[in-house]
Amino acid sequence: MNIVVPVKLVPDLVEELTIDASGAALDTMWLRLIINELDDHAIEQAILLKERYGGQVTVLAPDSEGVDDMLFTASARGADQLVKLVGNFEGGVNNHALGRALAAYVKDLKPDLILTGVQAHNDLDGSIGALLAEYLQMPYVGYVSGVNLETDKAVVRKEYPGGLIAELEVALPAVLGIQAAEQPPRYVAISKVRQAMKTATIEEHEVAELDLLGGAVVSRMFQPEAAEKATMLSGDPDAVAEQLIGIFKELGVL
Amino acid sequence: MKTTEMQENVFSREKIYASLFELENGERIRTCLQCGSCSGICPFGYLMEFPPSLIIAALRADMYEEVINTESVWMCVSCYACTQICPSQIPVTAALMTHTKEELLLAGKVPTELQSALENSQRYGNPMGESPRKRADWAASIENPKVNIMGMIRRPVDVLWFVGDYPSYHPRVQLATKALAKVLNALGVDFGILGPEENSDGDTQRLAGERGLFEMLAEKNGKVFRKYKFNRIITTDPHAFNALKNEYPKLGIDYPVQHYTQFLAERLDDIKPLLTHEVKARVAYHDPCYLGRANGVYEPPRTLLQAIPGLELVEMSHNHTNSLCCGGGGGGMWLDGFQWEKAHTRLSEWRVGEAVKAGAEILAVACPYEPPRFEDAAKTVKEASHLAVYEIAELLAKSMGL
User: Fold this and answer.
1) Considering the domain boundaries, does residue A161 fall inside one?
2) Cβ contacts of B212 on chain A, cutoff 8 Å
3) Terminal Cα distance for chain A, rounded
4) From the list A30, A187, A191, which residue is nearest B115 (CB)?
5) How many separate domains does chain A show?
6) Domain of A74?
7) Which of A77, A134, B75, B308 has the fewest CB atoms found within 10 Å of its own CB?
């Protein structure tokens, strides 16, 4: 079983986000990046499948600050092959462009299964899994929280709103958008990550040109604005009560 | 099966012995009498399938893998009670228990709560996952003079204050941190803090089995220490004190270090005239494991308390070398849910009960794990509902009218 897991790093919300001078993007000065949480679950699910059925897990990610550490951690957890897509990824890239870049590379890996996080908090133009499936002409199931494999198909558990869960059969190869791995992403001791840094290698794959067509263009980015402020009543309790009755009458509740 | 053979190999007696014997006095494990004192004095020994003496017995019988297959050792709060009582002077806490946690961690058997504290420590330099940029935010309200942040003042200081994780971020503990800053200012101490450049001391992560993480954090702190000039380090946290005094030097990071109670007790003559307000209360002092048993510092905190006018110091039934852990050590701080499930009681609840029995109105502490732990415990132990919990720095500030 050849499993490919495309993942990406997203802004870490532990730091307050600020908007840059253009007014249409995040200020990257203090930005820290962290693996998209659901991508982390996709890696875990891939390793669980490898442990259960055997096979090979390839984790790949577009280049960004901290991506090497993230990939080495994936290796320490059990990933076999690490790939970094290198190109003009600075400041992020839309999912259409990323999907096309991934598809071109992933096709040659001849995967049986592609697992990726079902969404990321900075997705503006749809989830990467569905786009990737389209470009690769593979079936796609999103919001998956459990996977079992049979000869040429996968039986997946898909979560629906309202607590409904469906079991679906998908022909392989397929793309799955992972909502949750069957167990929380495992912990690996730092000593093992450090070991992986010495022994594992990250393959670099050059992406010559990114085709941004289809992505959303941000015209303005801003902090939430209060639409209407609350009215503060002041004065002694009698005066406040008087005003309150006036307001109630005006609104027709009295 | 192949995997079983491999695992047997990993946990073979010879292999574990070899790892243990590398540690300081580790070979003393051979001299175990199987008297069981360690298991008896362990505050959670009665809940462990393998308390310390049984781990040694299992090891001798080449059955260490069975120990690894239980979660026993996560009840260990690294309080040094076992080490203190062992007639063969076996480093039970530092070697046996900590190494067993390391083996569990390497085998990927980590309770979820602990896992997130370790991941946060790695990523953000503090176990709570707070923003590293906000590490010095507590200091904003301190005036006359303002708290020096080393990266900003660019000059040497006399004292580098290693503030620590909970003193920097925990809302309750911040009150004690501010009190200590005011006391240092009142004494005219020239001090600075590292602020956003400070990382967790890593000692509790080490005692929770994450040695690699400890080394990573120590290296980061060591690198920052080297950037600045200072004469000595003081710590708010006994765990940081323990790390800087006993563990960092092994990694080549060697500075004179004191717990703040030691530093202040040496300046008692300067402090006494400032203690102008009475604190009329019976006060019990809780010896933190890493100040007391692990490092033999018992008197400086008591000296400071006794200098406060109106204050009457009383002792609880467990005191000095026999002190009882608050439950936060060795990863206990990050295993509250796990330990509650196993024990349905908390060591902190036991401890506040002792304070009340000793007639105390205030429980004085000298470790940042304790104000939140004991205050929470006092809320759930009926007879302790009127017990107040203060860091020694807070009582000094109170008496100084700060």
Assistant:
1) yes
2) 189-194
3) 70
4) A187
5) 1
6) 2-206
7) A134
